[in-house]
Amino acid sequence: MEEGALLIAGVGGLGCAWARAAHSRCSEHSDLLLIDADPASLADASHANCIPLGNIESSDGCASMPELARGWLAEKTRDLVQVLDPVEMVIILTALGGGAGTGGAHLLAERAKAAGALVITVVATPFDEQVARLRTARAWLPRLEDVSHACIRLSLPRLAWRARERGVDWQHGGGWMEDLIDGLIRTQAQVGLINLDLMDLRSILERPGRATMLVAQGRASDASRLVRQALAAPLENVALDGAAGCLIQVEGGMELTLGEVNEVTEAFTARLHPDSQVIFGARMSPELDGEVRVVAVLSGL
User: Fold this and answer.
1) Is 93 a residue whose pLDDT tops 90?
2) Beta bridge partners of 218
3) What is the residue-averaged pLDDT of the chain?
4) CATH code, residues 5-183
5) Given strand 212-218, what is the order of strands in its sheet?
6) pTM recorded for the entire structure
7) Does the CA dihedral 26-77-112-132 come out positive or negative?
8) Residue percentage of the chain with pLDDT more than 70
9) Would you kindly state where each structural domain of the chain is located, as residue ranges?
10) Which pLDDT does position 236 carry in this prediction?
11) pLDDT at position 21, please?
């Protein structure tokens, strides 16, 4: 990987599936890291950095044994250092509940943060019916939050419902995960009308409190619908009113005007506190003919 790399990392079975789907949308701008004890998660991934946990010849894995997963990944410290050394930002995708994601994601985040990278984690907790797994997830979640610049909580029931509405597989991100990660990577990787950089993102995410991310795509002329679409994201419930900071990227077709950028930005920030810090960027993309895509990062919640 090259210096200043943007890295998408999947830890555990779901995390690897989400990372692979997201990376397929922005492979020219990012690198991919897959970490799991299940050989199936790493199969046919010659384009990725892969760190197998435990005995990769076995399919036993480390389900319900997060400490075992953590120990296995700790043994791969040299591999982690080699992968993370050139990275400026890492987006970690994982699900908690008792396996490789639970035991390994926070260790990856810890090592990445120590290497100087900006660490954004998107983490899902189990369905409410999975009582034992939910209890394990809640016990390990604070560790992940402590070592991430932003830890975005994902609701699996809301993700599954949204995927059903779109007729896609929730286990591969339900379309939402790919949209979000692709949009976030492109805010850092491509030149635009009004540019955002990693320092802008850092300045927003280093505010104390929780953080979240939103994504929406539609007509610039219907900004209120874009906001409603973004708020329907499969995230755990969090009130946006008190956000202390907001980074927002508006991407549109070649006919995008600064007036439309301003209208969309104002629609998204109208709910924020008047003293919130808002940084916005804008970019033209030929593939977004007649539409805009908005990615917003909010912090200090």
Assistant:
1) yes
2) 292
3) 85
4) 3.40.50.1440
5) 212-218, 292-299, 245-252, 277-284
6) 0.87
7) positive
8) 93
9) 5-183, 201-299
10) 72
11) 92
DSSP string, the chain: --TTEEEEEEEHHHHHHHHHHHHTTSTTT-EEEEEESSHHHHTT-TTSEEEE-S-TT-S-TTTT-HHHHHHHHHTTHHHHHHHHTTEEEEEEEEE-SSSHHHHHHHHHHHHHHHTT-EEEEEEEE--TT-HHHHHHHHHHHHHHHHT-SEEEEEEHHHHHHHHHHHTS-GGGTTTHHHHHHHHHHHHHHS--SB---HHHHHHHHTSSS--EEEEEEE-TT-HHHHHHHHHTSSB-----TT-SEEEEEEEE-TT--HHHHHHHHHHHHTTS-TT-EEEEEEEE-TTSTT-EEEEEEEE--
CA 60 to the chain's CA centroid: 28
Residue 259 and residue 253: Cα distance in Å, rounded?
Answer: 14
Superfamily of domain 201-299: Tubulin/FtsZ, C-terminal domain (3.30.1330.20)
pLDDT of residue 91: 96
What does the block give as tokens for 38? 């299940």
Cα 140 from Cα 144, distance rounded (Å): 7
25-68 pLDDT, tens per residue? 888 999 999 999 888 888 888 888 999 988 655 556 666 677 88
Exposed, middle or buried, 59 (CB in 10 Å: 0-12/13-18/19+)?
exposed
* Residue 44 Rama label (left phi>0; alpha psi -120 to 50; beta): left
| Beta strand pairing call for 245-252 and 150-155 | unpaired
**What are the distances in angstroms from CA 148 to CA 102, 114, 244, 300?**
14, 11, 18, 14
Amino acid at 74: A
Residue at token pair 């209890």: 135
In this structure, what token pair is assigned to residue 73?
């990944």
Q: To which residue do tokens 């930005």 refer?
A: 265
Question: Which residue type is seen at 135?
Answer: R
